[in-house]
Amino acid sequence: MESTTNSGKEKRRIAATSVIAAVFLTSMKLVVGIATGSLGILSEALHSLLDLFAAVITFFVVKFSDKPADEAHQYGHGKFENYSALVETGLLAITCLWIVYEALKRIITKDVEIEITFWSYAVIIISILIDASRSRALYKVAKKHNSQALEADALHFSTDIWSSMVVLFGLIGAAFNYFYADSIAALIVAAIVLTVTYRLGKKSFDALVDKAPSGLTEEIDKIVSEIQDVKYHHNIKVRESGPYKFAEINIHVDKNLTIEKAHEISHIVEEGIKRKISNIEVMIHTEPDM
Asked: What's this model's pTM, rounded to 2 decimal places?
């Protein structure tokens, strides 16, 4: 298993670059959005501001989540990442409420004035390119280290790609004097953000209440079933804490074996699971097969 130190450094480095990207995108969208009056761009600026908060949270969280277990946190600090993702969910929900309110107000009052300039298009196109680059880099590191915090950050940036494309179509519509396209685009952005909110919130909540990760029980069951010295196994229990997984399992071995041999088999089971599943701690209870 890769050392925690190297893993932590890589996660912090990618998180720091995300903070820098979010600062740049937020500033650029705010300036252009205020100058042109485009709700679509302003909603994107708020979305990027959310990404900035999320990126900052992620940067600090990955530092704490990689700390080793101690007397106060005997299962490690991995759940800092789950709490981080839950906080980001709340920020996403607040963003949606503001976007929906402003979009509906403009549609109902018909008070829509948008100045379409070169910078209106430039800021969105630049945003799409940066978001695509950051999302790809974050997903790569998140997958490598099984980091929910980085995955949430990547999800924010990937959502920005689609919402920016929607805003771009809204600007094109406004260029042809269909100004409501901008407000409609903002509502679509809100729908996209709500979808992300649900997915992110459910995943973080499931981890916090120790819901078994999907497919993990079946994977462990298959691994143990292939070990010939295990006569029978049952009571597989699994849970997640940030990038880490914990599993408990009861195995039955030949009742005539010595304690040393039974311990050896339990060690084989543990190593077999760790070879196939990364970042997992395994607790095995060995019983004689009657």
From this structure: 0.58
